[in-house]
Amino acid sequence: MSYNERLMGPHPRPRAVPERGASEIADNIAMLRQQLMSIIPHRLHILVILGLLLLANSAGTAGDQPVGTFLSHFAPHLSSQSFSHLLPHLAAPPEELLVPLPGGGEELLKGFSLADEARLAESLQQLALHQRPLRVAVGEVAGIKAALIKFQAGDIRTGQFQIKQVESDAAAALGSAFSSDPGLQHIDIWSVVPGPINDEGQRHQPVFSVSADRGTYTRAVAAGHAGGELLAALGVVRYDPLLTKYASDNLRRDGNQRRMPTTAYTAVPLGSEESWLRLANRTSHVRPEELTEATVVRVLLHGARNRRRVAITIDDGPCPLITPLILRILDKEGVRATFFVVGEKTEQYPELLREIVRAGHLVGNHTYHHRRLAELPAEQIVAEIEACQAAVGRLTGQVMRYLRPPGGSYSPTVLRYLADGSHTMVLWTHNAGDWGNPPVSGIVQRCLKNIRPGSIILMHGGDINSVQALPFIIRGLRQRGLEPVALTEMLGADAPRQLSIAAALGLPQNGWQPDTVK
After folding, report:
1. How many CB atoms lie within 10 A of CB 420?
2. Disulfide-capable partner of 211 in 4, 103, 351, 454 (CB 3.0 to 4.6 Å)?
3. Cβ atoms of residues 172 and 304 within 8 Å
4. Which helix (H) or strand (E) holds 169?
5. Considering only CA atoms, which of 131, 38, 128 is closest in space to residue 92?
6. 104-108, 188-192, 224-228, 425-429: least confident range
7. For 115-159, how does the pLDDT look when each residue is reduced to its tens digit (9 = 90+)?
8. Residue 11 confidence (pLDDT)
9. Mean pLDDT along residues 40-57
10. Distances (CA, A) of 504 to 23, 320, 367, 413, 512
C-alpha cells in the first residue's frame, strides 16, 4: 500500500481525559454523540443531540445535580425565543458542503518538487488528522523554499465541522512539515469546501487559512503556545462564517460563542449575497454616464523615459505558496513591486496581504471578483471597485489609488467612474503572458524585449513559472542598467497622464500598450 493510500485511510483519535463531576458527564455525552455521529446519517444528528439532552435532563430532574447544573447552561438556548440560534450549531453542514473534492491519492502531489512533496505527504501520514488532505505543494526558487497544504473541511468520518479540529490539524501539520524539511521557510495551510462549478470544474472555496514563517513559528512554539494560541501567534487566521456557522463546537458550555484567537479574521465576505446586494444598492446612485467623453481621466501608460526605472506589477493575488515565494525573491533582490490584488482573495488569505504591505510593496485595486468591467452595468462596476477597496482597507487601513481593470478591459462607464473618483487606471507596456503558464524562458523574453526606462511589466502571481522567471527578469533589467521599482518610485513627482475619456477609449482595449506610446 502506497503512502498516499495509507494517508487517505481512517486515523485513530486520541481519547479525551474526562474531568470529574459536571464536566465528566458533559464529556461522556460529547463522546457518545461523536460515536453516534459516525454511524448515522447527517440529517439525524440534531435528533440524536436533542435526545441526549432530554435524557440527561431527565437524569438531572431525578436528583442528579451535576447533570442538572450542566444543562442549566443550555436552558436559555432551549427557550422558544432563542432555540433558533442554537439550531445551526447542532445541525450538520448542508450536503453540498460535504461533496468529496478532487485530490488525495495520486493527485495529492502538485508536481512542483516531487521529492519534497513526497516527504511532506509522508510527514502528514504520521498524524491523526481529522480532515482529508487534498493537495500538498512545495516550490523552491533561488534557494528559497515554501509549501502549501490543502485540506477538505469536515471530519473524515462524520463530515462534521469543528473549529478545534481545524486548528488542531493546522498546528500539527505545521509542526510536522517544518520538522521534516529544515529547508522550508514558509507554509500556507487552508481548508476548503466545494464552491461554484465553473469552466475549470468544481471550485475549492477556502473557509480557513493560516500562514507561517519558520522564524515566527519557532518563536511561538518556544513560548509554549499550542493549538489556537499557536495559530494566533503566527499572524492573521481566517475563519469564514460558513465554517463557524456549522461548527458543532462553536457554542461553549455557557452558551456563548467560542472564543477565537486574538488574530482571528471572521468578517463576512463582502462578496456574500447579502453584503453584495447592500453594496450594489448603496452605489446605485452613482451616475457616471452623466460625464461626457471630454471629461479627463488619469491613465498611466508608462513612466518617465529620462529615469532608468522600470515598474514590476503583479496581478491576481494574493495566492498561497506563490505570493510568499515572490515576496522572498523580491526581498532577496532588494526590489519593491506593485501588487494589484483581488478583494475576494485578500479576505481568504488576509495574512498574505499583510505580508505584502509589511514588506513595503505598493498595493493596487484589481476588483473584488476579477470580473471584466466592460461587461458589467454601472452599479456592478462601482461595487467591484469599492468592494476591493473596502476589503483591503479593513485589513490594512490603506487606501488604494491605482486600479488595473482585469484583462485591461474597460468601457466608457468605467472611465467615467474613474474620472469622478480618486483612482488612476494603470495599463502596461510589457505583458509577461504568464497567465497561460508558458515556459520560463518565454516569460523572461516577453518581459525584457525592447525594455526601456519607464516601462511597466505585467506579471501574474498564480503559478510557479512566474516565480521561477522573476529572478531572471530582475537580473536582466539590471544588466541593462534599469532598476525595478514600485509604480510610485517610478513616477516620483510626475503625475499620471491626463486623457479625455474619448482618447482613453482609443487605446488598445486589451490594456497592452506598445512601448512606442509617447
Report:
1. 15
2. 351
3. no
4. helix 163-180
5. 38
6. 104-108
7. 999 999 999 999 999 999 999 999 999 999 999 999 999 999 999
8. 38
9. 52
10. 69, 35, 20, 12, 12
Is 341:291 a contact under the CB 8 Å cutoff? no
Compute the mean pLDDT over every residue in the chain, rounded to the nearest whole number.
84
300 Cβ neighbours under 8 A, 6+ residues apart: 402, 424, 425, 426, 427, 456, 487, 491, 496, 497
DSSP tag of 453 = T
CB 485 within 8 A of CB 335: yes
C-alpha 437/C-alpha 460 separation (Å) is 10
H-helix or E-strand spanning residue 207: strand 201-213
Choose among 8, 316, 302: nearest CA to 136: 8
Give burial (CB, 10 Å; 0-12/13-18/19+) of 280.
middle
Beta carbons within 10 angstroms of residue 41's beta carbon? 8
Does residue 283 sit in helix, strand or coil?
A: coil
- In 10 A of CB 332, how many CB atoms? 14
- Backbone φ, ψ for residue 26 (5° rounding): -60, -45
Burial string for 88-116 (b: 16+ CB within 10 Å, else e) reads: ebbbbbeeebbeebebbeeebbbebbeeb
What pLDDT digit, counting tens, does each position of 2-39 carry? 444 444 444 333 333 344 444 454 454 455 555 555 44
Min mean pLDDT across 140-154, 358-372, 408-422, 459-473 is at 408-422
CB 9 within 8 Å of CB 127: no
**Arithmetic mean of pLDDT, 395-420:** 92
* Prior bond of 318 cis (ω within 30°): yes
In whole angstroms, what is the distance from residue 118 CA to residue 213 CA? 21
In this prediction, residue 329 carries a pLDDT of: 98
Q: Name the residues annotated as catalytic.
A: 315, 460
Q: In the numeric block, which cell numbers belong to residue 380?
A: 456592478
The Cα–Cα gap between 447 and 475 comes to 12
Q: The C-alpha cell of 194 is what? A: 466545494
Integer Cα distance of 485 and 214 in angstroms:
28
